[in-house]
Sequence to fold (169 residues):
Amino acid sequence: MSEEDVVDRPVRRIPGGAGILLPMRRPARRRDPKVERISQVQLFSACSKRDLSRIAVLAEEIEVPSGRVLMRQGDIGREAFVIADGRAKVTIRGKSSAELGPGECFGEMALLHSAPRSATVTAESDMRLFVLGSRQFAALIESVPGVGRQVLAALAERVRKAERAQPHH
Fold:
């Protein structure tokens, strides 16, 4: 290590070390649990830490009790949900379709297009959710176009998976 390296970095003296200087370790940054959870969502998984932090700032944290309908099939959607804690049940035309848990996202199509919801989602347990509105998402896309590209790529992948799962006639 040269003297130049030592000059630009915080240093500490070793007791009894006759003037020996060593670089100080920077304290580990605390990870924001909201950013961590959002980073687990496929829709946002390719986003940078900086972009994830921006998304986290825009997403409102809410708590809902078990049994609450979070979105209803046929209603117009204006927000997406990320599950921080808890479980939800998805039904389509009254038939159970899927179970969702922490780190999963639903309602994301509403971020791009206000249209009738394709499913009903009900809290199966008490839940903590991050809610991202379409207006906040539009503002994010304006300022950080890369996030929009990442979300579109993730949605395209979901459409491909859904198409592969459909029986061919």
Q: What stands out?
A: The beta strands are 11-13, 21-23, 60-64, 69-71, 79-85, 88-92, 95-100, 105-106, 120-123, 127-133. Confidence is low (pLDDT under 50) at residues 1-9. The CA atoms of residues 64 and 94 lie 22 Å apart. The domain at 3-165 is CATH 2.60.120.10 (Jelly Rolls).
